[in-house]
Structures are given as C-alpha cells and as structure tokens.
C-alpha cells in the first residue's frame, strides 16, 4: 500500500509538472511514474511492478490519451526490461542512472512511434530528436539521481525478523 501511495504521488507531481510547463515541444517530459515503476521492479518484486505498471498505465491512458493500451503496455514492459538488464550488469548508482536514462529514451521513441502510426501526433522526428529528447533526458537523469536514495530505501524489501 505504501508503494502505491508513493507511485500515486509521483503520478500527481508529474501531472502538475506537465500542466504547468507544457507549452511547446521544447518542454521536457518528466516521467516520474515510470521512474518509480522502474525502481519498484529493480528493488522490489517484479510481480508488483507488473501490477503497478498495469494500473498506472491504464490510469495514464484514461487521463492523458484517447487510446487505451499505449501506456498500459509500456508501463508494464519498460520496468521489467530494466530489472532484467540490471540483474545481469550489476546494480550501482551509475548503472542504474545510465540504464534508466536509456530506457526513458526507448520509452520516448516507443510512444512517438505508436502515436505516429495511429495519427495521434503532429510532431516530426526532427522535432523529437532536436527539441524534445535532449531536455527530456536531462530532466529525467536528474530525477533518477534525486530519487535514487529515497526509492531504494523505500522500495527495497526488508528482511523478516525470525521468530524464536
């Protein structure tokens, strides 16, 4: 329940950031909910990350898009990919930041590709690469670094005390 509340707070912060600062393509997207889901999948149980990904992906689709399934699929898939990749290359601060940043890039291109395929965006690939991606990567790298210590402490499973 605590993890759900934390992810919901990240969702609200992300929604207010987007509402306040979204005025042009240059505005970087801050993916706090996705970052939180990635931390849950890495330091928590991947089953809970999959469930939270489905819930928050559906919430994203209902609130922000006209199509159901875009964020539902990506919010479930990207955190699982992160957890599998980091289990093989090792988990430290720099590997987490680099892998999360790369997955945010994959997420941005994935959403752009789907939205272009269904005709839901007027953004060109040049606008995406030149105006949006650099700012989005910078803002999210800072958010990943700032959330590293709180999320690793908050999400990491605590050992169960032995009785007797």
CATH class: Mainly Alpha
Structural category:
mainly alpha
Count of alpha/pi helices: 6
Helix share of residues?
Answer: over 70%
Using the CA coordinates, give the radius of gyration. Answer: 16 Å
Order of helices and strands: HHHHHH
Organism: Exiguobacterium aurantiacum
Membrane topology: Multi-pass membrane protein
Family: Belongs to the MreD family.
Transmembrane segments: 28-44, 70-89, 96-117, 137-156
Characterization of the model:
The protein has 164 residues and is mainly alpha-helical. The protein has a single domain (2-19, 26-155), classed as Arp2/3 complex 21 kDa subunit ARPC3, CATH 1.10.1760. Helix content is 77%, strand content 0%. It has six helices and no strands. The protein has helices spanning 2-21, 32-43, 46-64, 70-89, 93-117, 125-155. Helix 2 (32-43) packs antiparallel against helix 3 (46-64) and helix 4 runs antiparallel to helix 5. The protein is globular.
């Amino acid at each position: 329940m605590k993890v759900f509340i934390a992810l919901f707070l990240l969702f609200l912060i992300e929604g207010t950031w987007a509402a306040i600062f979204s005025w042009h393509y240059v505005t970087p997207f801050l993916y706090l909910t996705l970052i939180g889901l990635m931390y849950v999948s890495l330091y928590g149980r991947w089953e809970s990350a999959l469930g939270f990904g489905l819930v928050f992906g559906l919430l994203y689709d209902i609130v922000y898009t006209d199509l159901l399934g875009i964020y539902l699929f990506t919010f479930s898939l990207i955190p699982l990919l992160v957890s599998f990749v980091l289990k093989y290359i090792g988990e430290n601060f720099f590997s987490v930041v680099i892998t999360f940043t790369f997955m945010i890039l994959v997420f941005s291109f994935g959403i752009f590709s789907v939205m272009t395929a269904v005709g839901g965006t007027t953004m060109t690939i040049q606008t995406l690469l030149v105006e949006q991606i650099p700012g989005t990567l910078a803002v999210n790298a800072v958010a990943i670094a700032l959330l590293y210590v709180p999320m690793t402490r908050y999400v990491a499973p605590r050992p169960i005390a032995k009785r007797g």
